[in-house]
Amino acid sequence: MHLVAEEIRHKLKVADSFISSMKSFVVKAGARRMELQQVYETFGFPKHLASIPVLTRWCTWLEAGSFHYERFEANKAWISETEENSAAIKTLTKLIQKDKLLQQLKIISDITPGLTSAIKTLEKERLAACSVWLQLKLVLGLTKEVFGDESEKLKLYLNEKHPALAFWKEIQFLDPRIASQFNDLEQNGLPLTLRQFTLASESQILPEISVRPSYSAISSAACCKRS
């Protein structure tokens, strides 16, 4: 997920610069924070500031970008009205005038709910391998929906480097939601081990099992039981 977030950040450079500049401008300046909070209140927003974005804690970066998208007009008014004349405000003035900024902040706002949910899920302890895979597939689809193309780094990881790849590619066909898509198993080319398993089951070498909405059936049929 770190690689995916880095990839997103790299593609949204204008928004990243704005998020970083806003953080630098207000994080250690109480007067600036109060001034900005008053502007937010004037625009009808609660008087609180964006999360402090910390790289490697990607939820904070995403949430900050979404926050600034929602308050874009308020930020724009504050930047144009402030009496500050520092280098930081000059940088913000240049960024707020770029058309790409609003577009990129919107992308962050769109991707934030799904991506932060996936990150928080993947941070849980004892998460099942299949859940990890499904979360990563959801993120892959989300990146395609937002950018028009899938995350190259995540696609490479899923296609070549995921430790459970070979096992999952075979056992996924035992999921009824996937298996129901195949009417002719031979012609649709199921993995060899599963084809052998099917033939063995039909010849009663293995005990007959029924396909259930879980993977426990394969373990009970294919694994030897200890006496």
Question: What can you tell me about this protein's structure?
Answer:
By secondary structure, the chain is mostly helical. It has two domains: 2-117, no CATH class; 170-222, no CATH class. It is built from 13 helices and no strands. The two termini are 43 Å apart. Mean pLDDT is 76; it is low at 204-215 and 221-227.
Write a compact overview of the structure shown:
The chain is an all-alpha fold and 227 residues long. The chain is built from 13 helices and no strands.
Key features?
mainly alpha; about 230 residues; about 65% helix; disordered C terminus
What's the arrangement of secondary structure elements?
Elements: H1 2-11, H2 13-26, H3 30-42, H4 58-70, H5 72-81, H6 87-96, H7 99-122, H8 129-147, H9 152-161, H10 165-171, H11 176-179, H12 192-202, H13 216-222
Helix pairs in contact: 2-6, 2-7, 3-5, 4-7, 5-6, 7-8
